[in-house]
Amino acid sequence: MSTNLSKIFVARLIGLDVFDPLGDRLGRLRDLVVLLRPGGRDQSMARPIVVGLVVEVLGKKRVFVPMTRVTSIDADQIICTGLVNLRRFEQRGAETLAVGELFDRTVVLLDGSGTATVEDMAMQQVGNRGDWQITQLFVRRSSSAGGLIRRRGETLIVDWEDTDDPSNAGHQPATQWISQHEEDQAADIADELRGMPEKRMLEIAAELQDERLADVLEELPEEHQVFILTNLGNERAVTLLEEMDPDDAADLLNELPPEDAEKFITMMEPEDAEDVRRLRTYEEGTAGSLMTPVPIVLSPEATVAEALAHIRQEEIIPAAASAVLVCRPPLETPTGKYLGFVHTQRLLRYPPPEAIGNLIDRSIEPVSDMASLEEVARELASYDLTILPIVNDADRLVGAVTIDDVLDALLPDDWRTYDDGTPIRKVGKRYE
């Protein structure tokens, strides 16, 4: 490997473009993967080995590039060779992320001067094999000790072995990790959590705000949803279930033992519990099991202005905001008689005082709550819809199915895992 730098500080590399030998851009460096080793008589042997890069490729997917494939590192770019496995990166138990887990953690300085916070680290090629090792830490002093006068906030560079066994120190604070990912979509956070050890996943989940965590849970595979929900305590679990869309909450509760599901439902607010109980009565694969019981429902006397105000609500997902469903009172599901719906696009063509009862599209028949998934998908596809009203046998609106609900049901269970469905554990040696 060629490099113009004898010692490289990791923070300066993050965000650099990664190229193949032909000059085609592979992606952008997001982190380094290191293996921590216990200390020993030869302290240089206890330094972490850098085994690979985490590169963000097209579609914000993160993949693993072994250090053995890296041919050049400089201040502007990183060049790698050979074929890169584009399966999504998933952190293994012995691996640690340099930025994601080592930055911002506290270490003890062995000179007796107190503790310090890791802000950066340096890596160098060491030994006959040319392994990359973390050799030094750039730290900011956080306390003083031993009666010595030290400046709080002073920065210094220390050798890895001059800290108190950093390999046994705790993870980067979960709050710091969350602040670094505050702009990410819920699906991107879910992808990150999926690749973490369970302990770290739970640390992050515990610090996420309720609304944010509820959105993330809806994007996680069922086994991870159950793990997080059942390890955060009953009160937090109930709060999350109330924050989730009722159909997603019902699906999650269906994965729990019946006695646990009933316990959580009993603890929920009566209105939320009623929606979830009703959804759980439907057989899996029916329109009733897929629907949300809280679409936008208005009376025919409501105005265009009122309808658009409901559509603008931040919590309404785009698919559900594509139409307003019109019914006779009561307007909570199950409603009075279902009359039809008004597309958002049609609302935009009429003045604010216009009554939506004059704009109703009656050409699309609602679907029974007992209809199959195939019937619902066919109806959505036939009429280019993103939302479909669902009624019971009394012609009362009981909910609506959106296109994302149908896609989730039609895609294979492991669609969130890898593009080709192959578990990453079946890939060969990772670092070669």
From TrEMBL:
Q: What Pfam families has UniProt attached to this entry? A: CBS (PF00571), MgtE_N (PF03448), SH3_actinomycetes (PF26205)
Q: Where is the CBS domain?
A: 291-359, 360-417
Q: Which InterPro entries match?
A: CBS_dom (IPR000644), CBS_dom_sf (IPR046342), Mg_transptr_MgtE_intracell_dom (IPR006668), MgtE_N_sf (IPR038076), MgtE_transporter (IPR006669), SH3_actinomycetes (IPR058838)
Q: Does the keyword Iron apply?
A: no
Q: Does the keyword Nucleotide-binding apply?
A: no
Sorted alphabetically, the keyword list is: CBS domain
Q: Which domain of life is it from?
A: Bacteria
Output this protein's name. Answer: CBS domain-containing protein
Q: Which organism is it from?
A: Kocuria carniphila
